[in-house]
Amino acid sequence: GAVVSQHPSRVICKSGTSVKIECRSLDFQATTMFWYRQFPKQSLMLMATSNEGSKATYEQGVEKDKFLINHASLTLSTLTVTSAHPEDSSFYICSAWDSLGVPDQPQHFGDGTRLSIL
Amino acid sequence: AQSVSQHNHHVILSEAASLELGCNYSYGGTVNLFWYVQYPGQHLQLLLKYFSGDPLVKGIKGFEAEFIKSKFSFNLRKPSVQWSDTAEYFCAVNAARGYSTLTFGKGTMLLVSP
Lengths: 118, 114
Description:
The complex is a heterodimer of chains A (118) and B (114). Chain A starts with a strand and ends with a strand. With 118 residues, chain A is an all-beta fold. In chain A, the strands form 2 sheets. In chain A, strands 2, 4, 5, 6, 9, 10 and 11 form a 7-stranded mixed sheet that branches. In chain A, strands 1-3-8-7 form a 4-stranded antiparallel sheet, with no helix packed on it. In chain A, 0% of the residues lie in helices and 50% in strands. Chain A contains no helices and 11 strands. Chain B is mostly beta strands and 114 residues long. The A-B interface holds A 32, 34, 42-46, 49, 93, 95, 97, 103-104, 106-107, 109-112 and B 32, 34, 36, 42-46, 49, 51, 90, 96-99, 101-107.
């Protein structure tokens, strides 16, 4: 089945550091990828929709200058948390749609990245 | 915009007990409905989905869900749970219009005691 690879799986870094998270669709093309954040004991919240070759669409309340998204190819989207602070500590998950599949296909999720800012 | 409500945050069952997890959504149009499962330390996995047709859908591992349009519900069921079903379960919905974003419920943590 379709596989989405997310890297790294875990990051621990100091406050003020920028962290880049990669999301790759391994065996399919994805013009659209999604970035979610999950705080402990809460549901996944959509942060932004990443579109290949164009600017990402951010959800209300998500700072676009804080969470930089780049979707440079049909198989790769990156999320950079700039100048991360402890309140950015969370579980970040990406998902992707198979662009060549029919619409209404389920999203395929990466394994997530647990980000801990000290 | 759509929203999803899951009734129970935590459910504790003994093995072989029957399971039903509630999920209600709100949206003015046609929707696709999903149940995802997240086992401890693992990524989200799709359990089952409803797009159209038979409102009773069967998924993996013996799970099923029934879409009741009049009640805006999509409850997840399993006749006899196993210890290995311990996980967090998320109901999700998106608008049935091509590539639309998923809205998730807050999840239900299921603990099955052996």
